[in-house]
Amino acid sequence: MSDSESLFEKLKSMGVQLGASHVVTQPKKQPIRHGIESVLSGFDHPTVYGKAFLTQEHYPDDYQHGRFTLCQEYEMDILAAWGGTPHITQPGASNVVFLDTETSGLSGGTGTYAFLVGIGYRTENGFELVQFFMRDPSQESALLAALEEWLARFDVVVTFNGKSFDIPLLNTRYTLNGFSSPFKNYEHLDVLQIARKLWRDRLPSRALGELEKEIVRFYRTEEEVPGWMIPQLYFDYLRLEDARPLAGVFYHNTRDILSLAALYGHIAGMLKDPLNEKIECHVIDMAAIARIYEEMGWLEQAIFLYEKSLETGDLPEPFFSKTLERFALLRRHQGDWAKAVDLWQKAASLGESSACIELSKYYEHRRRNYMEALFWAKRGLELVEVDRYYMGSGRTVVREIEKRIGRLYKRIYRSPLSE
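^ thats the sequence. predicted structure below, dont judge the formating
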């Protein structure tokens, strides 16, 4: 008998079990799944492409979002005219829908899809918010079909940055699923575009989250999920089949829509009646509205509001002098040179180099007063040099002013080399 066999027999006689036949295999635990139905109250909406999961929430007329209600009754004609959306005909129009998406990526492209689409709209009894959710990518056609069906009652889509992101993305998804996109049938108002014009001077950021805090004065709870985390949370949900973290994504989408609706009403009120005390229009915003009126060709309204914003005495520097200059250019375009010169002189006294150059142009070309033109050109150069020293301005403006000064010297001394 070999040594190995004797060892085997010896171990066997001691009751030692060899091999794996005696090992009892424990059953593998299955992961506990938490579907979206266990996290949120919703329902399946049937389409010819399958079921889409929807949630629906009602907000009464007096629901307060921050300092606003969602059903503000301001006239919409100026906002409609600015946005080119004539179907916004009344404050409580039920043909307007607010839309926001949550997507699998933040950069767009054909590989990005909207797994959650939220819409909000006015009804006779308040404000309805509906969210369309894609349990997995195979349900995209069902989500898109349900969304199109729900949107059929509206004429105007209101978004925040939707012209650059949400609507192009949805158009792509409809096309890739073999559908014709319904959005070509709607007027579209992008609130971000008017927000940039209204608050670019007063607020450092015009992102919806910042406007929500600074303008709406709404502050989100701990349920909030940062936007940059949302794509990864959805991919985790697909991998782990655990929808619990998505509750924060639905909260994020809901608050985006509510804040969008609140901003929409407030902006309409600002544009219609910025002097209304109930609107609480900041004087810097008032000057911005004057610029919007001017761009729209509503010059009488622009002049009135420019004067009001300057008369308050509350317009801080540098906005006061910049508003003076803007108002002066409007007066110049109207041919009111006396008023334009008066405004330029006020701006120049506050250190605005561009106002000095406008005065130099005026005295050179309209009054033929070359000495006065030279004075203002030199003053403008001094201010630009100071600005260039402290602010890092380039040499282009300096060269242009130096060229002007040289030409004025030639005119004054009637050099044969003058032009």
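The radius of gyration is 33 Å.
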